Amino acid sequence: MNQITKRVSFLIALVGSLASAGSAQDYQTERVVPQTSAQVQLSYAPIVREAAPAVVNIYTKQVVRSRRSALFDDPLFQRFFGDQFSFGMPEERVRGSLGSGVIVRPNGVIVTNHHVIEGADEIQVVLADRREFDARVVLDDQRTDLAILQIDVGDEPLPTLALSDSDNVLVGDIVLAIGNPFGIGQTVTGGIVSATARTQQGISDFGFFIQTDAAVNPGNSGGALVGMNGDLLGINTAIYSRTGASNGIGFAIPANMVKSVLRAALNEGQLVRPWLGVNGQSVTGELAASLGLDRAGGVLVDNVFPGSPAATADLKVGDVIMAVAGKEVIDEPGLNFRIATMEDGAEVTLAVLSDGFIQERSVKLALPPEEPKRNVTKLDGRNPFQGVTIGNLSPRFNDELQIDPFLKGVVVLEVDRRTPAGRYQFLLPGDILLGINGVRVEQVSDLTDTLTDGDERYVYQLRRRGQALECMIIPNRSFRCRQ
After folding, report:
1. Most Cβ neighbours (<10 Å): which of 197, 276, 334, 410?
2. Which of the following is catalytic: 166, 204, 221, 308?
3. pLDDT tens digits for 344-397?
4. Of 97, 115, 166, 246, which one is the catalytic site residue?
5. Residue 259 and residue 356 share a domain
6. Is 145 a catalytic residue?
7. C-alpha closest to that of 416 among 383, 388, 448
8. Whether residue 214 is found in the same domain as residue 283
9. Which of 140, 141, 145, 213 is catalytic?
10. Could you confirm whether 290 is annotated as catalytic?
11. Domain for residue 96, yes or no?
């Protein structure tokens, strides 16, 4: 075994012991196998009696408008016929859905899943005592699949569930899932924690889930995964199933991620996650062998953003991040989760393999910068780009757009479909403009200062889905792109 392998093996053992020291001790003193027949007959009823009143049913309504033919929206058609053809008017119907939620503050603050309330025009919350309230959305975060709701209950305090430290959850712990499966009403199911730190499920951008075999079905989404101390361990969010029914594999968003979203909702109302400032790749078995490691695990740094917290901490390309705050990092989603659950300005210790040695690096996390300012602008004038909305990329804006934080330039945000650019797809949302008519485009002002009306041709360069394209438009005649 070479020196790097020895050091890494020692680190992994050390990280594991640090992370589990407290929880292992708790396990010996609090988590015990039943010793007598009387203990086997113990009931979960006291836990359910305390926890269930804090779990609510959520019903949503969405008005769906059927699309009418694009012919009726054409300006030429509108000019001659207006809206006199009633058969062309959109039809409306109401679509309902259901889910669950958890009261986390006595004044009526509720946590649920983003996908439970997505697109809803009306949200109704039904408490365990059958009282009904209209809810408003305080924060809705698609990337974590979490949403924070608020109901008005006056001065009456509601029952709540306390959020546990989900890092202390162990495989084998007994858990209860409480929710509203199939809309039949509040239901409690039991099981154990089957796995922790599940990633690569494709459920959300910060996928890092508690897996359980407690029966979870449609309608349980947004409901509570409760531990034996009655605290909230996670929010049930998805199941692994080919039929839509429970197959004994359910996933819950850990309470520590819920805390970060809740903190943003109650403090600022806008969620901006702390930023490390690196891009990397998960260390696979093959990559581990090339690095002299004896096992997969960690994140190999591919890029470091200048001036970022990572750069300030002297992280560099080729370093491997092995642990964050004493918690082992298995892959890139695990690293993203650890950073996303922390607060702006937090001092965090990273365990880093650098130049063959394990080193500790202290990093002060910060919010991603918005340099340059986004300067969202809708182009106008008599040119092919009329009606195109663009903005400047930055780490902060890129995070909101869910794109690579290292991308720079001018991004297309929206294209008015009634304009030539919309009809002929000169530009598409997500395109990054690089240059036009021989002028390099780095900011919105570069394009607006260069773009003139009435040119005979427009030659521009862009990046679309990772491919570089050069396009040429001759107004009223032709349009073509090539790689």
Report:
1. 276
2. 221
3. 899 999 999 998 888 999 999 999 999 999 999 999 888 888 999 999 999 999
4. 115
5. no
6. yes
7. 388
8. no
9. 145
10. no
11. no
